[in-house]
Amino acid sequence: MSPSLFSFSPPKVWNMLGLGTLKEWLSNNSKRWLWVILVLAACLGVYSRFFTLKLNITTPGPELQKRIDVPLLTPWLAPIVWDGTFDKDILNEQFQDRNVTIGLTLFAIKKYVVFLKLFLETAEKYFMVGYKVNYYVFTDRPADVPKIPLQQGRKVITLVVQNYARWQDISMHRMEMISNFSHQHFFQEVDYLACMDVDMKFSDHLGVEILSSLFGTLHPGYYRAQPKSFSYERRPQSQAYIPKGKGDFYYAGGFFGGTVQQVYEMTKACHEAMLIDKKNNIEAVWHDESHLNKYLFLHKPTKVLSPEYLWDEQLLGRPAFLRKLRYVAVPKNHAEIRNK
């Protein structure tokens, strides 16, 4: 029976494996190996210290915290923005280098002009602080647009438009006005558009974390609801129709945006869909919001804003998952405001 490998004496094993020369080199050069190990250890120490310093520079600060209590991604892997999911300092470095200008559209038609002062004052405190902002005020009462102190690089641009007898018509014509003024103003003057309701106020930081090619905001009344309970337009005769069993989120008509090109395409498509509905004598259940939801169902937004970015504390309270309330409803009498 042939002897096993382990029956050989150690020198024979070394020779059998062809490692005799290596063994001799190691034994004769132990000091040399010691120096090599020491030099490598020193290099690793320097690299480790340098890498740690780099991490200290680029690692997000304490405001970036892991959220496990809320959904962070859509099914198509777009981020859902919550407190604790972004680092303001890193984002500001990126966007300030690009020297962006943000446009904000708001409609102050009829008595809604009374909300302008509070909206603009709180926007100056919380909205895109440190960036150039154009406030585009669509109104039929230009003389009532308040003059408030603005940060450097920010201005109010009043766009005079007609009013309509019904508040529903005012709401639906917003899409038409935004798309029409895109070529007159927005394409030449701003990089991004945020389209917002005026009967609201800002109550915390709202900055460049929202910016993306196309973004929508989760409707606070339907957050955590199942799609079957969403108030989509369910009549097939309407261009806003979304069948039962379809849909992913219900978006609020009071806050959406993106690049000027994307907002233009969306508002134009929604306006054209409403014109078809009008020709067919049908009006979507929630007017422009219904058409917005149909568009975002077919053209998925690249970023989704959580209910932190649109909330009604008086109506819905303050659940624990809302660490911040950034843009909130102002108490009002809807019947009195809408019909005057």
Written description of the protein model:
With 340 residues, this protein is of the alpha/beta class. The chain contains ten helices and ten strands. It has helices at 10-16, 20-28, 30-58, 88-98, 116-126, 167-189, 260-279, 287-298, 313-316, 334-338; strands at residues 80-81, 101-108, 132-139, 154-160, 192-196, 200-202, 214-218, 251-259, 303-305, 327-329. The strands form two sheets. It has an eight-stranded mixed β-sheet with strand order 1-9-7-8-5-2-3-4. A two-stranded antiparallel ribbon has the order 6-10. α7 packs across α8. The longest helix is centred in the first third of the chain and has 29 residues, at 30-58. It is globular, with a radius of gyration of 30 Å. The termini are far apart. The model is unreliable at 1-19 and 46-60 (pLDDT under 50).
Proportion in helices: 25-40%
Rg on CA atoms, Å: 30 Å
Q: Which structural class best describes the helix and strand composition?
A: alpha/beta
Largest sheet: 8 strands, mixed
- In N-to-C order, the SSE pattern is HHHEHEHEEHEEEEHHEHEH
**Which term fits the overall shape?**
globular
Percent of residues in beta strands: 15-25%
* Uncertain segments: 1-19, 46-60
Figure out the total of helices. Answer: 10
Task: Report the mean per-residue pLDDT as an integer.
Answer: 85
Please report the total strand number as a whole number.
10
Termini Cα gap? 108 Å
The order of strands across the largest sheet is 1-9-7-8-5-2-3-4
